[in-house]
Write a structure and sequence with these properties.
By secondary structure, the protein is an alpha/beta fold. The chain binds flavin-adenine dinucleotide (FAD). Flavin-adenine dinucleotide is lined by residues 67, 94-100, 120-123, 128-130, 147-150, 152-153, 354, 402-403, 439-441, 444, 448, 468, 470, 585, 588-589, 623-624, 630-632, 635.
Length: 649
């Protein structure tokens, strides 16, 4: 049975698992061999081009093993004595994500363009979460985002972050020029919900009554909500009681918690989950809870069991309209859940997401690495990785290099230098610098910077990242999507809870797919969470799950999900899938504080990130974790603060 189903799904097709060693493509010959398997890091070879790799990307094999052996206390057993590179820099930055790259930019602004800077990153590509995925399907190039999707933030960008965006030449208000807003609608495509047989008793695709906000907002959901709900209720395979409950919840919400003031009501809502609110306060049928369960996955990486009812209210989820709540934010409300019109307007999506920001920063930092001069011409510009770590450049970016020790040479208060030791290609090296910015994930820092105070290490360790999969599936055409009339599919019971046709953006000579007969990228999102546990525990269990699930298993689930969802439209996974890239992020979004689990957030006392980001001698700490806010603007803000701490005197 398994074998015949595998054949139907196309598990035998030459594109994916069979052509992978540990999930990394090897079909294109030695040029595409996974670097860590060759035992060297050929970043300087002309054929080195990570964006074109498919298979398991994100935290790819070879990127995390060193850090994990450091965590497990085994790294130094076999590491040998570090080799002194003899290099001395003004600044060594650990982490080549947007925060690390922005730190280099700010340091040069403060000290001058001659400042010598080394950036180390453990991945084979720069950008951190802001990663570019490229696919060639027949003659078409398709660009995808492997992580950070767009310039957007729940609160307005700071003056500092906006200035960086402008210095990079990004004209945010010009976005509508590049975005074909009506493409899918004009083809009769709308957001839908896929009900799966394991969760709801049958496989069925039904119109989505709740597609409001976000990149796949449906105009019908805004303009004709009652009509949409009526159609949904006619088709949805849920209990009759659940249909009545859902209709009441949306159209006749009650005045729950009578006799309490707005503040008192919000205080109660901040302390119960939205799932609990639906079950115990509203008394909704369990099918209603199941429909909403995974809706916040894309934002928080957990379901409504771990999102407070107050945050659900802020997000516009139903049930609160009859409660007469004052619109001002309540205590402990997550910043993502405080609507802000100015912030909503500041949006830009490049075809490779915010990898374009990383690429524009690299273009500024390392001359000749990426040709061109505008935000448009960068889209198709091919990065020359051989230039990144060039001895003639004042800024060098060294990939596949995991920092394993950062220490002052002497006492932190009086030392003149910092030594940074890193592992690369099976060897250990040490370089020196006047200063260091740790722009890497905070959970790593206690293992690489042992001299930090214990209280600070504890605060750093609490920044549990949110585990996610951003999967890009390149398909040969999207006629099946057209036939089932869907462009965005919410799937509350499936492995990936979101399935979306790529956002149609054409810029700088890059043309998105406009006709259903053309190849396109389908973007799928999974939050690896474990409902019922406190949020941090859900994240650590999900992280383990992502590290231990093979690419083959993920591939089978992807093929099965697309076959079941789009089968009625004629989708054949064996024929239609051209390539799969799973961007695995066991350490994904920065952890954001949650009124259900973090009492300090409700009480307004000092937060762990404030303790975690304190400077220590010549070492300063950046990354989005330093603001406990999972957005690009925060990665930039924190880089600015960290560099300011090192350069202020
Ligand atoms: C899937 C996903 C989607 C997202 N979408 C958006 C979005 O649409 N908009 C938005 O604003 N934000 C988004 N974010 C948040 C995103 O994390 C931030 O926007 C920003 O890119 C974070 O940058 P950073 O430099 O702080 O961290 P990172 O991008 O994580 O970079 C840190 C780098 O440090 C490296 N590192 C860690 N330890 C070491 C070590 N010991 N030695 C060397 N290197 C090390 C890491 O591997 C990583 O490459 C998204 C995040 C994820 C995971």
């Amino acid at each position: 049975m398994e074998n015949s189903r595998d054949r139907e799904l196309g598990m035998h097709r030459r594109i994916t698992r069979r052509d992978f060693i540990n999930g990394v493509a090897v079909t294109a010959g030695a040029a595409m061999m996974p670097w860590h398997l060759i035992g060297e890091t050929p970043q300087n070879s002309t054929s080195y081009y990570p964006p074109a790799l498919t298979g398991m990307r994100g935290s790819h094999p070879g990127s995390f093993e060193t850090a994990h052996s450091l965590r497990d206390g085994t790294f130094w057993d076999s590491a040998g004595k570090p080799e002194d590179t003899g290099e001395t820099y003004d600044l060594i930055i650990v982490g080549g994500g947007i925060s690390g790259l922005a730190a280099a930019h700010f340091y040069r602004k403060a000290i001058g363009n001659n400042a010598r800077i080394l950036i180390l990153d453990n991945h084979d590509d720069f950008g951190g979460h802001a990663k570019r995925n490229e696919f060639r399907i027949n003659d078409s190039l398709r660009l995808g985002f492997g992580g950070t999707f767009s310039i957007e933030s729940p609160a307005p960008y700071s003056a500092v972050a906006k200035a960086v965006i402008e210095e990079l030449g990004i004209d945010v208000p010009s976005y509508p020029k590049y975005f074909d807003k009506n493409l899918y609608r004009s083809q009769g495509l709308h957001p839908k919900i896929f009900f799966d047989k394991e969760t709801f008793g049958t496989d069925k695709l039904v119109v989505n009554f709740a597609a409001r906000g976000g990149w796949n907002e449906s105009e019908d959901a805004i303009n004709q909500p009652a009509e949409l709900l009526k159609r949904f209720l006619e088709e949805a395979p849920i209990a009759e009681q659940a249909k009545r409950d859902l209709q009441n919840l949306l159209e006749e919400p009650k005045g729950y918690f009578p006799g309490l003031t707005s503040d008192q009501k919000k205080a109660k809502l901040a302390r119960i989950s939205y799932a609990n609110f639906l079950m115990t306060v509203v008394g909704a049928h369990q099918d209603v809870v199941k429909i909403f369960q995974t809706m916040p996955h894309g934002l928080f990486g957990v379901g409504i069991d771990a999102v407070s009812a107050q945050d659900a209210w802020g997000l516009g989820l139903p049930g609160f309209d009859g409660m007469n709540l004052d619109p001002s934010p309540g205590k402990g409300q997550n910043r993502d859940c405080i609507p802000n019109e100015e912030a909503e307007k500041y949006f830009f999506h490049f075809p490779d997401g915010n990898a374009t920001i990383a690429r524009l920063l690299v273009r500024k930092l390392v001359p000749g690495a990426i040709p061109g001069s505008t935000m448009s011409d960068v889209v198709l510009a091919k990065a020359n990785y051989a230039k990144l770590d060039d001895a003639n450049s004042s800024v060098r970016i060294r990939l596949s290099s995991t920092a394993v020790r950062v220490k002052h040479l002497g006492d932190a208060a009086s030392a003149k230098e910092v030594e940074v030791t890193y592992a690369r290609g099976g060897k250990v090296y040490a370089a020196k610098a006047k200063n260091s910015v740790l722009a890497c994930w905070h959970v790593v820092i206690p293992y690489i910077c042992e001299e930090l105070p214990d209280k600070q290490k504890e605060a750093l360790a609490s920044a549990q990242k949110v585990p996610l999969l951003y999967t890009n599936v390149a398909i040969r055409n999207w006629t099946s999507f057209q036939k089932v009339g869907a462009n965005a599919i919410y799937a509350p019971g499936m492995y990936h809870s979101g399935v979306n046709l790529d956002l149609p953006v054409s810029i700088g000579g890059y043309e998105c797919a406009r006709k259903p007969e053309e190849p396109i990228i389908v973007h799928m999102m999974k939050a690896a969470c474990h409902p019922g546990l406190p949020a941090r525990q859900q994240h650590s269990a999900g992280r383990m799950e992502l590290y231990t699930t093979s690419f083959e298993t993920m591939e089978r689930k992807i093929r099965d999900q697309l076959a079941r969802t789009l089968g009625a439209g004629g989708f054949d996974p064996a024929r239609d899938i051209a390539a799969i890239t799973v961007n695995r992020w066991p350490h994904g979004y920065a952890y954001e504080y949650n009124s259900l689990f973090d009492s300090f957030w409700l009480e307004g006392t000092e937060t762990p990130c404030e303790v975690a980001r304190k400077p220590h001698g010549r070492i300063a700490i950046a990354n989005a974790d330093a603001g406990a806010y999972a957005y690009t603007d925060e990665a930039i803000n924190q880089a600015y603060r960290a560099v300011g701490e090192l350069t202020k005197s």
